[in-house]
Every structure is written in structure tokens, then in C-alpha cells.
Amino acid sequence: MARTRARILLGAAMVAAAMLTSIGFSYAQTANGKIKISFIHFFKQDDPNADANNKTFYPTFAKFRSDNPNVEFDVEDMVHDTYETKMKTLAAGNELPDLFLIKGSWIDNFIDNGLVKPVNPLLDSNAAWRDNFNAGAFDEFKRNGNDIYGIPFQLFTTHLVYYNSAVFQKAGIKTFPKTWKEFEAAIKALKAKGYTPISLGNKGKWVAESCILSTLGDRYTGSPWFYSLRDRKGAKFTDPDFVKSLDALQKLAKMGAFNSDLNSIDDNQQKTLYINGKSAMFMDGAWSISTMVSIAPADIMKNTHLAILPAVDGGKGDPMAASGGSGWGYAINANLSPEKQKVIGQLVAALTGPDAARVTIENNGQPAGKAAAYDKSKLAPLSNEYFDLVGKIKFTPIYDIQLNAPVIEVMNAGLQELLIGTVTPRDLAARIEAEYEKK
């Protein structure tokens, strides 16, 4: 009943908007004749943990505003987790801004409710910009064949193990584990030395899934299972191999692999524990490379290296694979006027073009597009290590980018319970499957 009522209200709001448009009402200009664009994003200004995307966004956006004095922006920025909550609320009320950031798991719902429109016209208006994106950059944003609903600004793995080799040496671990048994042995050795083996900040309910389970699950199931699930061709969350991955994750928690307050701290705080020498590892996406370069002390950076989770016994997935993709992209409101659409196309082209990609790489980031010539000397050793590693692995699906939002919400909330032992792997799998079967 609540969902039906929400859809009726949403439909009424959309009809009202259409009526305003039909009688010539325009939101395109302010009283002083300027084009006004509303824009919400998660590139928080003056963020002490700013990553390469943030460092690219602000100077690029500032230059565009300076070069386009006829455009007035109403901008709201906020931290990532707050952004997700805010946008879901705005979407429910049909109050999305003109320009915003979207992830793949939101797209189907937004399309069904008439909230977004394809960005193909923006891309096609500038072929050089459109063709500069790396292969696969748009995969998560495509629907109905070739309709594209998001323009990515990044392309990377969401799973990396950042580890301190000096701490490993103190615990008698000479190299990063190659098998799951070796990994579990390393957890025990690190804990015996007084370290938190893996610092985890899952307060936002996405790190455990996006940065760990999306890869760990694939180790057990293999990617064909996921594609069968996504495309509704027979796979189920209750299949034994997926349940095994939940069991493996819970077993790590029971071994004391993670900090006890893992559901009370966020992804920035998990890095703080590592930087302060309290933990030996943390798992995060490639975006944390630039953050680490910016905030970690020299002795920590000197000993920080990258790996991915090791092979699991009997797993069907490729042990040299990690979850990856674009994650987020720029999206436009379905009711955008042609005048606004033209301006936004120019802005997003600047934010994701070759010059922006150059700035991103020079700040140790991973852009979605090919970069203009850049200064390789500006890259930190950890960035070079990443590019060497990523050249050896293949990307597998990111759960929260490719599965629909209600399923992800049940999964992510359930993982918080799984990690503290209040739900069993089998029961959580059944809970996720029940939500999955609703559609």
C-alpha cells in the first residue's frame, strides 16, 4: 500500500511538472537572465581525505564557472554516505536536481519512475569526448541496448588489500598469502602480535559488500553465476557457493580479523586505524590510493603495498580477479530543458575529458577516460604498483552497482548483522533471495 501511494504521488508530481512545461513555464533562467543549474554531488569541499576525483573536480568546476558567467549554479556538496541517503529521499519525492551522480543499482528504479533521461545526446554532441572513454567505462550505465544513463569519471577496482609489509614481517609473514588457508594463518599471526589484522569501517553499510564480498563472492561462485542472477536466468542467492562466501566472511569476523566497532566507524576511520599503526590491513577501492598518498606518514607509505584476496579452496572464480568498474557517473534530470542540457553537456565534458583525466592521474587517481600527456614523475610508488597489479587482473561485477537497490539494501544491512554474528550465512542468503524474488 505504501509503495502504491508513493507511486501515485510521484505520478501526480510528474504530471504537474509536465503541465507546467506545456504552458511554457521554464526553470531555465533566473530573473537576471542567467541559466540556473541545480547540482548535488559528494565531492566534499575541504575534505581532509580528498581523493583524486575531488582534487580534479574543484579546479575544473571553478574554471568552467569562470568561463561561463551566464550560468548560475545552485550547488550542494556532502560526504558520500549522506549523499546516498539524500538522493534516495529526493528521488522518492521527485525532487532531483538538474545534475547529480548516479550508480548502476539506482538506474532501473529511476527509469521506471521517469526520473532520468539518456545522456546519449550529450555524448553525441561531442564525438571526440565520447570516443575518449576507456573500454567498458559505460557498461554499468547502459540499458535497453545502447541507452546510457550515466557518464563516468572513474574506472577502477573497488577491491584492494592495502597491507603493511613491515607489520607482516614482525608477525613472521614473509609474503602476502596466496591461499585462503595462508590468509587465515596470517590473521591469527597478526592478532597474536597485538594488531587488528583488518580495520573495517562499515558504518555506511557498503564497504563490506562493495570492497570485500563482491570479490570474495566471485571467488566462490565465479562471474557466470552473478550474470545468471542479474539477468534472472536461474541463479539464486541461496545457492551453496554464495552461502560459502558469506560463511567465509563471517568466519573471519569470528576469528577476530576485524575491529569490534566495525559497524560504528566509516571508511575514512578504517584508514586512520591503519595509518596509526593499529591495523595491518584494510580493504578499500583504488580511490584510497590518492588519499593515502595525501595523508599517510612517510614510514607507513614506505611499507604499504597492494594485493587482492587469495584463492579459496574449491572456488569457481578466477583468483586473479577483483570487483571493478566505473561505480558512479553524472546523470541528468528527466525534465531537463534543452538549454540546460547543452550547458550540462559542456560542463560534464570538462569534468571527464582528457585534461581532467590528466589531473586525476597526476593525483594518483584512475579516470574513466584517456588522459592528455601527463607527468609520470608525479605518480607515487603506490600508484605505479596499482597500475602494475591491475594490468594482471580482470574486473568482476560490483554487487551494489549492478543489482537493484532494494536487494542491495537488504544485503548491506544483513552484512552488518553477519559480521557481528546475529544472523547466519544461510538465513541472510534466504533474506536476500526473498527480496530478490519480489520483482
Q: Key terms for this structure?
A:
alpha/beta; 3-stranded antiparallel beta sheet; globular; D-Maltodextrin-Binding Protein, domain 2; 14 strands; 4-stranded mixed beta sheet; disordered N terminus; 2 domains; 20 helices; 439 residues
Structural summary, described in words:
By secondary structure, the protein is of the alpha/beta class. It folds into two domains: 2-9 and 37-155 and 326-372, D-Maltodextrin-Binding Protein, domain 2, CATH 3.40.190; 157-324 and 396-436, D-Maltodextrin-Binding Protein, domain 2 (3-Layer(aba) Sandwich). Helices cover 49% and strands 13% of the residues. It contains 20 helices and 14 strands. The chain has helices at residues 2-22, 52-67, 80-92, 104-112, 120-124, 127-130, 165-170, 180-192, 207-221, 223-230, 240-254, 267-275, 288-295, 298-303, 338-352, 354-362, 381-390, 399-402, 405-419, 425-436, and strands spanning 35-41, 71-77, 99-103, 142-143, 147-148, 151-152, 156-157, 160-164, 196-199, 279-284, 304-307, 321-325, 328-332, 394-396. The strands form five sheets. A four-stranded mixed beta sheet has the order 9-10-8-11. Strand 4 (142-143) and strand 5 (147-148) form a beta hairpin. Helix 9 (207-221) packs across helix 11 (240-254) and helix 11 packs across helix 20 (425-436). The longest helix has 21 residues, at 2-22. It is globular and about 65 Å long.
Concise description?
The chain is an alpha/beta fold and 439 residues long. It has helices at 2-22, 52-67, 80-92, 104-112, 120-124, 127-130, 165-170, 180-192, 207-221, 223-230, 240-254, 267-275, 288-295, 298-303, 338-352, 354-362, 381-390, 399-402, 405-419, 425-436, and strands spanning 35-41, 71-77, 99-103, 142-143, 147-148, 151-152, 156-157, 160-164, 196-199, 279-284, 304-307, 321-325, 328-332, 394-396. The protein folds into 2 domains: 2-9 and 37-155 and 326-372, D-Maltodextrin-Binding Protein, domain 2; 157-324 and 396-436, D-Maltodextrin-Binding Protein, domain 2 (3-Layer(aba) Sandwich), CATH 3.40.190.
